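Internal ticket - ligand job 298, adenosine-5'-triphosphate:
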Amino acid sequence: MMETQGIMNIEEEAETVDTANKSHQPLRTPAVAPSPRSTEKPQTTRSEVAFDVQNLCCWFGAHQALYDVTLRIPARSVTAIIGPSGCGKSTFLRALNRMHEIVRGARLQGVVRLRGQDIYAPGLDPTIVRRRVGMVFQKSNPFPTMSIAENVTVGLRLNGLRDRDVLTERMEKALRMAALWDEVKDHLDRAGVSLSGGQQQRLCIARALAVQPEVLLMDEPASALDPISTMKIEELIQQLKKDYTIVTVTHNMQQAARCSDYTAFLYMGRLIEFDKTETIFTNPGNKQTEDYVTGRFG
Ligand SMILES: Nc1ncnc2c1ncn2[C@@H]1O[C@H](COP(=O)(O)OP(=O)(O)OP(=O)(O)O)[C@@H](O)[C@H]1O
Ligand SMILES: [Mg+2]
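stdout (structure tokens):
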């Protein structure tokens, strides 16, 4: 079954989480033949699950955009979502921080747990979820009337933080993490939109990081950038995964192969395959995945 292909071989925590898996899908589904390398070197460290997604279905009005997506996204790693245009990548990402429901007429079914907590639990404030799960969009979107500094601290100020010293400290930390500090430290009061495209994108990453989320969702964060800025974003992703769970959508196969630890391939709203990136790109279990990653369609 398609959804079982999304279940990764993740250790203990996964089993804890799985107790609530009403469909009782097997945990270690050999749906995808293990790569020779993974049999040589079995996973001995305990991987944690960040998102446990079960049977996720999303609709826009009568149009169903996602069908029964089931997968577990490991924590402190980079998961790439790939697939042709319109297959549901952005919809999937937006369901992970409750942004899907913002669209008029949109609805959703299934379970999404973050570190074991149902993010759609009745009574749970979506803003709390969005604080834990930050998002960076394809087109950088600094607030046009705000300075570089204000753009970074806006989330903290909205959360009620007033202490100037703390705000300054958090701003610097976020800008350093986003690999932008050295380029902007001497003109923090300039408008955020005065920066170059690549700098603006890193500013948006700093803004998302300033509120200290657990997860960073990125929807094609480098697609509008030149190769050097793209490389900076890719390097940044590698740095950030030490502390964060990153889920990123990309159209660029080389980027997915270079930057991610796990890859999910979506096609026409369905999860076709989810596995270690190396397996997806060198030894996929599904013909459609192979055709897509080798550029035969998409
Ligand atoms: N706001 C919306 N209202 C109605 N339908 C939508 C909306 N957003 C997306 N859809 C539809 O849902 C499906 C999935 O769209 P989605 O944006 O998730 O695809 P995608 O994989 O991110 O595509 P792309 O690579 O072009 O960004 C598509 O058929 C799209 O037309
Ligand atoms: Mg999209």
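Auto-summary: Residues 89-90, 219 surround magnesium ion (ligand 2) (CB under 6 Å). Residues 1-45 have pLDDT under 50 and may be disordered.
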